[in-house]
Automatic annotation (TrEMBL):
Biased composition, class Gly residues, residue ranges: 255-268
Region (Disordered): 239-268
InterPro entries per record: LPXTG_anchor, SCO1860-like
Name the UniProt record assigns to this protein: Gram-positive cocci surface proteins LPxTG domain-containing protein
Biased composition (Low complexity): 239-254
Residue intervals passing through the bilayer: 272-291
UniProt keyword annotation of Hydrolase present: no
Top-level taxon of the source organism: Bacteria
Amino acid sequence: MNTPTHSLSLRTPAAALAAALLALAGAPQAHAAGHGDGTASAAVLRADLDVSLLHQSVRLPVHTALNEVRAPATAGKTALTVTLDGVESGRPVQLLGAGAASAKATADRHGARATARLAHARVHVPGLPLLSLIEVEAVTSTAVCEAGEKPEAKSTLAGPVRILGKRYEVTAGGPPTEVTVPGVGEVSLGFSQTRAGDAAATATALALDVTVDPLKLGVARVEGRVTLAEAACEAPAPAAAPAEAPAGEPAPRAQGGGRDLAETGGGSSTPLLAGTALALLAAGAGVLLLARRRARR
């Protein structure tokens, strides 16, 4: 009655250990490899302004954006309004009105791309509801960052612009256009500000540094910056190069089969582990046989 139980207790550890060693010898090793996606962002309009009120030591900050997106995203709103206490009798102030406005950003492991477009647009600042800060026919900015390629950034402008009611021709990459209107204010306009580095690119179609003194509708002074059609991207991080074997050392190959050990899941320690497992099996069988002989006596 004791023999089956005793023989099972002797056989089980040896067999289990041998099976574990064989499984270890044949188990493949996994190595994670890969790289991240690129990044992209775009915005049709961005305003960073400080509005000072008449007869009050109050400064109202205006920090807002229209169609600001980060990959993956698309936006197509055509108007942006803000409401400031004490400005224009508390009515909403329309900063931007456009016939068309869109921003799109996409990114994956192959590259990133951002585009911002604006057409038939008028930009206003608080205190000047009837006079446009700037009017544009059409502007577009694009930034492209493909994996392994040099990033590109580009801005285009169709037609002239009107700044504080005056018509101007602007030159891409040229010096800023300075505009002064007595009793109204000053505007410095820069067109097509682009940058492209080793892995990132940015493009801004129009950038306006504003100092306006409307002296009406409760506003004493407006200062800050307004940008139109922004696009930016960053290329994906390059994939890590696979480790190379030292020079002069051939890759190990399985005996007789002609297949790489990497393909079968084995390694250089496979023969040693397999031999150890077989030795343990033989030892377990010997112990089992000895136990049975003693049980018969």
